[in-house]
Automatic annotation (TrEMBL), chains A, B:
CDD domains: HTH_LacI, PBP1_LacI_sugar_binding-like. InterPro entries: HTH_LacI, LacI/GalR-like_sensor, Lambda_DNA-bd_dom_sf, Peripla_BP_I. It comes from the Bacteria. Residues 6-60 form the HTH lacI-type domain. This is LacI family DNA-binding transcriptional regulator. SMART domains: HTH_LACI (SM00354). Keywords: DNA-binding, Transcription, Transcription regulation. Gene3D superfamilies: 3.40.50.2300, lambda repressor-like DNA-binding domains.
Length: 333, 333
DNA sequence: GACTGGACTGGGAGCGCTTTCAGTCTCAGT
DNA sequence: ACTGAGACTGAAAGCGCTCCCAGTCCAGTC
């Protein structure tokens, strides 16, 4: 440990050039003769030189890292496979760059404050913000942020310049239309959080489809995207509308909970009740019965967020991106 | 955007003190009179000053971030709820400090190289390394690392100074003993990856228990911790030892896959075959039937890793920590 | 009143890198 | 031989902060 770091000066000295020349050579900037460039190259290898990112950051005023902030009071939110996949997508793009990914769960007051500070003071080159609630404190931060912000999922209440979202409304509609098309007439929904963009959009899709079909759209219970919430909501649904024959559940996690409750209630799926989920997480293939669900490209969502941020950092002004969703029919409907 | 940052000099000037005094006041170091301390305090607030972390890092030679590196060629590894929970645990501890969490999935060559570089050149104050394989390239890095390294899970092949692990062997043993105790005699196991510490330890526990019971321990198929792998392994198990009446599966994910295959094969769980998993992920409560499994404190694992790293950074030399596991009996056994 | 120790102060030297800019060199063009 | 364009060079000025250290100041002592 703690062997002194090799500095640019040492490289320059060894290569017999000035520090500036060495710097240019290393960043392969123009205006360095081939001879010197190669001399520097050799010196770098001989010495095992690696530039000090901190010093570089100070000099260039660029930090070299972007933060992914996930909002929500419950830190376990990350445990949702959805986020994990998004992170994987983001990470895969960032890996090709020299940016590092700082994860900020920003759960506690203190954590939020730190995040706020980072946003305001350029302790990161950019930020990706996910799953904002309506009136989320993070949203305010985003506005006064001193760095580019890309939203994952269109937030409620304002239209940010940069965001990537899945076509939730369309997906919700497709799911519901599918229920209609298969002959269900007493269709209910377990929504996601309605203070989140994805939750409301999927719910709107549900309404759209039922309106077109001329069916009653009043069978609704609000959920929270999580499994237990889904189970609870299903119980409520069953209690209030015992005759329902189809249900659109706004997340697979909730759908898994709902399936369990249906089974416990002795309702056969899909014979008595058809169930359609949303997200197409890997577990959806393996539920009993396998879950019909709306696929959204989750890793791609992460990738596109990262790419969009990169684009903004590069000075471009990319347009918001809506990723397509598509229905995957399995045995639960 | 891009409003110039307020610097310490401005604060100092406004407070009518020297930059050094201001610095001391802000870091509440000694040797600052109460008067000046307060003047600085006021100036900070008036100006909205926030110290520049990069500059501070350069001056103090401390980066202010720690990296969590998860090894494994498959980036989707993170999608394992296990890791997600670990991250949550780590994050909760770090949130109380001024360290940020850099996530490094280090999947590609390039990513690995970058990580290696960071480890060697103090681009982070410390590292947490998870799920190393035997002969993992990351292990080599860890040795030549210039910063403290804490391992999550004891790696195979060497004994690091600092690690946090769950008592996998004991857990595997408890799980298997439970199968024995409930009268199973033809007990099989689906192991995890045997090139990982956790995989082998659980397998050893399995062997321990069967040895004591004097039962045959040859019914084994190697899995990979993931759901599909578990399903496949279960198929193999069934094919080779159709008479098995109990199986210890080294992860809940795999157990879920195994349950599915057993169901498809028409074996009733637990009547025909008892199944015990490992990890106690939240999904384990909701499988059909609910899964008997070995609980390990996953978030705590993350928390303790972070705490241990913090301790090392503080100059202490904490001892390795083995977290207890405990059997949770549900309906699958 | 000279002296001492302790509390405080601020100048200044870095931390390692980038980048500007005044020059120097080369060489084709005249 | 002279000129100017263009390629290259390196000294020096930062980036914003920390921290050492030589001082100053002010009781408190004798």
């Amino acid at each position: 440990m703690a062997k002194r770091q090799v500095t640019l000066d040492e490289v320059a000295e060894r290569a017999g050039v000035s520090r500036s020349a060495a710097s240019r050579a290393i960043n392969n900037a123009p205006n360095v003769s081939r001879v010197k460039r190669e001399a520097v190259q050799r010196a770098v290898e001989a010495l095992g030189y690696v530039p000090n990112a901190t010093a570089r950051a100070l000099a260039t005023q660029q930090v070299g890292s972007v933060v992914l902030a996930i909002s929500g009071e419950d830190p376990a939110l990350l445990a949702d496979p959805f986020f994990a996949e998004v992170v994987v997508g983001i990470s895969s793009v960032l890996e090709e760059t020299d940016l590092e990914l700082v994860l900020s769960l920003a759960t506690s007051e203190r954590g939020q404050a730190r995040l706020a500070q980072r946003l305001r003071t350029r302790q990161a080159d950019g930020v990706m913000l996910m799953s904002l609630r309506e009136n989320d404190p993070l949203a305010a931060l985003a506005h006064q942020a001193d760095v580019p912000v890309v939203f994952g999922g269109r937030p409620l209440g304002f239209e940010p310049s940069y965001y990537v979202d899945a076509d939730n409304r369309c997906g919700g509609r497709a799911a519901t239309e599918h229920l209609v098309a298969t002959g269900r007439t007493r269709i209910a929904t377990i929504t996601g959080r309605l203070d989140e963009g994805a939750g409301t959009a999927r719910y709107q899709g549900f309404q759209d489809a039922l309106a077109v079909a001329g069916l009653d759209a009043s069978r609704i219970v609000q959920g929270d995207f999580a499994e237990d919430g889904g189970a609870q909501a299903m119980g409520e649904l069953l209690a209030r509308w015992p005759d329902l024959d189809g249900v659109f559940v706004a997340s697979d996690q909730m759908a898994i909970g709902a399936l369990r409750v249906l089974r416990e209630a002795g309702r056969s799926v899909p014979d008595d009740v058809a169930v359609v989920g949303f997200n197409d997480i890997s577990a959806a293939r393996h539920t009993v019965p396998p879950l019909t669900t709306v696929h959204q490209p989750i890793q791609a969502l992460g990738r596109e967020m990262a790419r969009m941020l990169l684009a903004v950092l590069a000075g471009e002004q990319p347009s918001p991106l809506i990723l397509p969703t598509r229905l995957v029919v399995r045995a639960s409907s």
